Amino acid sequence: MNTMLSSLSQGLKGQFRVPGDKSISHRAIMLGSLAEGVTQVSGFLEAEDALATLKAFQLMGVDIERLGEGRLRINGVGLHGLKAPQEDLYVGNSGTSMRLLSGILAGQKFDSTLTGDHSLTKRPMRRVLDPLSLMGAAVESTDAGTSPLKVHGGAPLRGIQYKMPMGSAQVKSCLLLAGLYAEGTTEVIEPAITRDHTERMLKGFGYSVKTEGNVVSIEGGGTLKGMSIDVPGDISSAAFFLVAASITPNSDITLQHVGVNATRTGIIDILLKMGADIQLLNEKVVGGEKVADIRVKSCQLKGIEVPENLVALAIDEFPVIFVAAAYAEGQTIVTGAEELRVKESDRIQTMADGLQTLGVDAQATADGMIINGGAVQGGEVESFDDHRIAMAFAVAGLQSRGAIKINNCENVATSFPNFVELATQCGFELAAK
Ligand SMILES: O=C(O)C1=C[C@@H](OP(=O)(O)O)[C@@H](O)[C@H](O)C1
Ligand SMILES: C=C(OP(=O)(O)O)C(=O)O
């Protein structure tokens, strides 16, 4: 899919499920592979990023059977059962795969190399390499602190206490996974609470993890026991529909079985503050993760100052939050979101540039954006090879004065391969070429 053309919609309707959670899918492969015994997974995200993690573990000798759409049987090899891969571990576009894998690989006896695509080779890796080297790991990057990452196996790891300089679930998870192989306790202190899927899933696999406020710790030397995992729908994919239905008159949709873990629901809190009509239905806990159906109806959004404590809880949703702000009445101010500059693209700059092309008064700042809501014009924008930028502009086209053409949309497949299909089924006017 090279381009998407998004035009005026008369309303969105329907009840449907978005694909499985990307963060949980990565972790299911990783922990299932390192566990003893069988792990059964349903709802797995069959998209490029999660499949990159799956392939990496197959290359390290793990037998992973694909039983049908979203269903896997992982025959775990235990914490010390991975085999040296015969080739570089290429993880495509996926920062989560590279950073979490670096922690696991640091604990192995063999050498390995992690590589990625053009976007991933520009993303900062010192954030994991610095603390890993404090643990005793031997991992090399380029001089710029980017991948390829060469991991020298056999270095004994020791637990450390590490105060993270940025809020990042990837860094936290990398260190907890390395901590499985370390002598003693690994303790991570977060500046802001971030998604806690690693901690929850480790507990599900029978491994003790302690969380007290923003401090998470783990002892090395235990074992993981295979389990069954039901991956809920990804709230980061649901987010496009939450904003789409909010800004499109005559809309009423229900997204079924979405993960609503409190470390991921910043998007809901932000939209509710903007005046959105969102209800959580059928709330329940499945495999240690909270799940609900989310019903959303159209409304007039209003601009807000986004509280900084919600930023890490909605970090991947900002491209589409900026679109919501463009359609809101009044001003929206986002601060404390400098992490957006080191995602698949610089999501502050790419969104500000695109919104300005569409006639929106959007000013990028060092750590966020100031957007004055108003009419959105049609036009042609770039995705900069970033899946979330592409889908955010597809949402922007639903009520713009003139269609929006989005270039370079192949990367939608990294997180949401059936986006166009689901979007058109519920009422988007979206043509993909
Ligand atoms: O741990 C994870 O699964 C993720 C953590 C976040 O990254 P950071 O930890 O770098 O903020 C998020 O942006 C990414 O999509 C997935
Ligand atoms: C930032 C993202 O993913 P990753 O860091 O895994 O590439 C994302 O999916 O928005």
From TrEMBL:
Kindly state which keywords UniProt assigns to this record, in alphabetical order: Amino-acid biosynthesis, Aromatic amino acid biosynthesis, Cytoplasm, Transferase
Pathway the protein contributes to:
Metabolic intermediate biosynthesis; chorismate biosynthesis; chorismate from D-erythrose 4-phosphate and phosphoenolpyruvate: step 6/7
- Specify the superkingdom: Bacteria
Which GO terms of the cellular component aspect does the record hold? cytoplasm
InterPro entries per the record? Enolpyruvate_Tfrase_dom (IPR001986), Enolpyruvate_Tfrase_sf (IPR036968), EPSP_synthase (IPR006264), EPSP_synthase_CS (IPR023193), RNA3'P_cycl/enolpyr_Trfase_a/b (IPR013792)
Give the location in the cell.
Cytoplasm
From the UniProt record, list the coiled-coil ranges: none
**Subunit structure, per the record?**
Monomer.
Q: What is this protein called?
A: 3-phosphoshikimate 1-carboxyvinyltransferase
Q: Which organism is it from?
A: Cycloclasticus zancles 78-ME
Please spell out the taxonomic lineage of the organism that makes this protein: Bacteria, Pseudomonadati, Pseudomonadota, Gammaproteobacteria, Thiotrichales
* Gene behind this protein: aroA
